[in-house]
């Protein structure tokens, strides 16, 4: 089978790497690491005409989308209408990620456990609501409803910061159109776990549990990032019970879209928080998690291409065998990320081995040398029967090799 992966990050490298075990893989636009397992094609991820041309010229059997942006823009619909098998939701279904207001409404309507919320387009109303919540002794989280590339959530330290965030989004338009509508929700406390399901429109297959480390610095300190590391399985859940939660968090979403005549085909990601009242959904994404995918892919056995193809065709999805090993993924970033950071830093010599897999995120080639081209640059996944050993294998491949231009957390899985 000939598979086209759309995207250029560490998540797409992990998908391409796994797919390449059983398929011939192409990737647009990819990166130098992905180029080792797939044929790279030029093009923008949301250029529907270009993607169609690649599908035609390379006789693609299946298109797999990495990032959410082209999905929200309806590129999966476009390619499906041209007759291609596409693994990735329609624009209507991708609203589950593209509009937090839509997602919250759907969660409440279908009884999915989640934080209490209200949405606002008027600053004065948002401010009054935030005031009243804090007066009642409750804390809130402020979220831009639209797609803000991971920058749309503010977990404030106090009331003034919460009001400031609402003002920045609604009045100053700090996030553009993404923040013209905001969600103000109850602040929940607990450990987080990622529930990622492969969906064929009517049914799902849950991937093994994983945990993402979102903060920039050790101990969960510093600004939120796209993710500084991940481990799988999550140490905070019992795997069998975790898998059963999909009935509560994934099934109602699939049913909702199927009833409306818009089957959800693609990955559905529920970000869960383990509260004293049980798991609740913080968010849904219409795609694989990043960096969770880099931790999960090396753990699964079998033909991922076949599974995604069957899902794309709305056919029953066979079960997936999960290997006995645990994994830990460390993200290497340019120092300063998620703020300002240097680019074009040469990559140090670091090699994959059977139990240490290197995935490229933001990299490119300059003058014959692989250099950094983004904030998150490399992902290093260690695999071992014991979780602790997986962590130490990953750090063993990194420690001492990256100078002061780089940053990585030292506490992933520790
Ligand atoms: P989201 O993109 O909605 O998942 O939010 C990003 C991060 O913000 C989450 O992973 C949580 O760490 C935090 N967060 C979001 N919503 C809440 C909430 N209601 N209570 C506490 N933390 C939250
Ligand atoms: N790792 C969180 C996300 O992919 O949204």
Describe the structure.
With 414 residues, this protein is α+β, with helices and mostly antiparallel strands. The chain has four domains: 2-88, Rossmann fold (3-Layer(aba) Sandwich), CATH 3.40.50.20; 116-186, Dna Ligase, domain 1 (2-Layer Sandwich); 191-322, ATP-grasp fold, B domain (D-amino Acid Aminotransferase, Chain A, domain 1, 2-Layer Sandwich); 326-407, Glycinamide Ribonucleotide Synthetase, Chain A, domain 4, CATH 3.90.600. Helices cover 29% and strands 29% of the residues. Strands 12, 15, 20, 21, 24 and 25 form a six-stranded antiparallel sheet that branches. The protein is globular and about 55 Å long. It starts with a strand and ends in a 7-residue tail after the last strand. The mean pLDDT is 97. Bound molecules: adenosine monophosphate (AMP) and glycine. Glycine binds next to loops.
Tag the structure with descriptive keywords.
414 residues, alpha+beta, Rossmann fold, Dna Ligase, domain 1, D-amino Acid Aminotransferase, Chain A, domain 1, 4 domains, 6-stranded antiparallel beta sheet, 5-stranded parallel beta sheet, 25 strands, globular, binds adenosine monophosphate, binds glycine
